[in-house]
Amino acid sequence: MPAIKALAAAVTLALLAWPVVSEAQSLASEGPGDVTRLTIARLHYNGGGDWYANPSSLPNLLERIARDTRFPVATREAVVTPLSPDLHDYPYLYMTGHGNVRFSEDELSALRRFLTAGGFLHADDNYGMDASFRREVRRLFPNRELVPVPLDHPIYCMVHALPDGLPKVHEHDGLPAEGLGLFHDGRLVIFYSYQSDLGDGWEDPEVHGDPTETREQALKMGINLFAYAVAQRKPL
């Protein structure tokens, strides 16, 4: 759609012109005297799944975001729960794992407020959390469903052009990678990377031994996701 492509182009120019010292809403200080910096918040969820999987992934992604954009980013991730008082400080909430995900009713309410107020959640199935994640999404937004994110959506061209959509990093069931999303008032609030293992592609090269080009495509997708999360964020 021409309107979507025009929006993506305009946002890309804005991102490249982002000031080194930002007025952005988020918030991780690297130390005394440092400017306020953006970071990614890893979601610590209950249910038994390994929410802490892929420990080198987010530091590597933050390093590439700093290299490829002018966002003032921290070098390390934050860790939050759905009930953390600072949840709304973070533009990009990330969750991954291989096992079960379960939210309490209070956690569902907190996540719903976060997402409808301008937040963004990227759920990255690391092979094994699919069934429980889809169940929790139905509890989170009972009247909406995950749908394929069209290839002309800005998320695939915010900083890097990915005309084929979500990259496929690892094989598991022999299925293609799917970029699924949940929309609220026309805004993409949840992006679900399924059958991709995107976070594996962000890890240190020696962890999985993935080809350089595969890792590059994964990192570019992560940069686009971060850029989209920051660009579409509503003022609090």
Description:
The chain is of the alpha/beta class and 236 residues long. It has a single domain (2-231), classed as Rossmann fold. Helix content is 33%, strand content 15%. The protein is built from seven helices and seven strands, in the order H-E-H-E-E-H-E-H-E-E-E-H-H-H. The protein has helices at 2-16, 57-68, 105-116, 130-140, 198-202, 205-208, 212-231, and strands at 40-43, 78-80, 92-97, 121-125, 147-148, 178-184, 187-194. A seven-stranded mixed beta sheet has the order 2-1-3-4-7-6-5. Helix 2 (57-68) crosses helix 7 (212-231). It is globular, with a radius of gyration of 17 Å. It starts with a helix and ends in a 5-residue tail after the last helix. Residues 16-35 have low confidence and may be disordered.
